């Protein structure tokens, strides 16, 4: 379980995240929404242990993340907004490269299966020839190499076509329900958020998001 308690982040005098508390159970997909600059990426960065909170605590599987950073990182898969893969390498070479950096080792067959699971079959193609959607799928596959229990996805489907979005959504649902992964997911696509997520966290002062989600039937937490 992930437990976030009264988490606050300030940059100088500006408080971006103010006393945020929530928990995530295995198998849950949580949507994070809010206007540009509301603090969604900041929250994901803090959960990924890449930034320190100003106050508050985060526990993952009962371990305090601020204290046990190294072991906590093994349980986290993080896909930032910007695609971070080698353009000149093939899909296969990228997967092998990142497998070498991962703490858990996987056979090539298993690496390939990770890509196939999300309908990415261009194994021998250079990444520079892939579409944006395929690159996002590869980024996601890379984040899964070490079999994390917590997946943090910052706009994983931005700018990609409906079919690829549906494929990624279906795969995330499968990861949550079949493998019990906890997924935190940001998107500006409210239909996608409503369709995919079990619960939704609205960040920021603007009530706009809460208002348009109110009829979704989903549990909404606002901060
Ligand atoms: N290193 C930093 N120093 C100072 N301010 C920062 C820093 N990083 C982010 N901010 C500010 O914190 C606020 C939240 O930024 P963040 O990127 O988390 O928002 P976001 O909700 O992810 O936005 P978007 O939807 O545009 O991706 C913004 O006002 C941003 O300018």
From TrEMBL:
SMART domains per UniProt: AAA (SM00382)
Gene3D superfamilies attached to this UniProt entry: P-loop containing nucleotide triphosphate hydrolases (3.40.50.300)
Top-rank taxon: Bacteria
CDD domains in the record: ABC_DR_subfamily_A (cd03230)
Swiss-Prot/TrEMBL keywords: ATP-binding, Nucleotide-binding, Transport
Start and end residues of each ABC transporter domain: 2-223
SUPFAM superfamilies named among the record's database cross-references: P-loop containing nucleoside triphosphate hydrolases (SSF52540)
GO molecular function, one term: ATP hydrolysis activity
Entry keyword annotation includes ATP-binding: yes
Family the entry assigns: Belongs to the ABC transporter superfamily.
Name of protein: ABC transporter ATP-binding protein
Lineage, highest ranks first: Bacteria, Bacillati, Bacillota, Bacilli, Bacillales
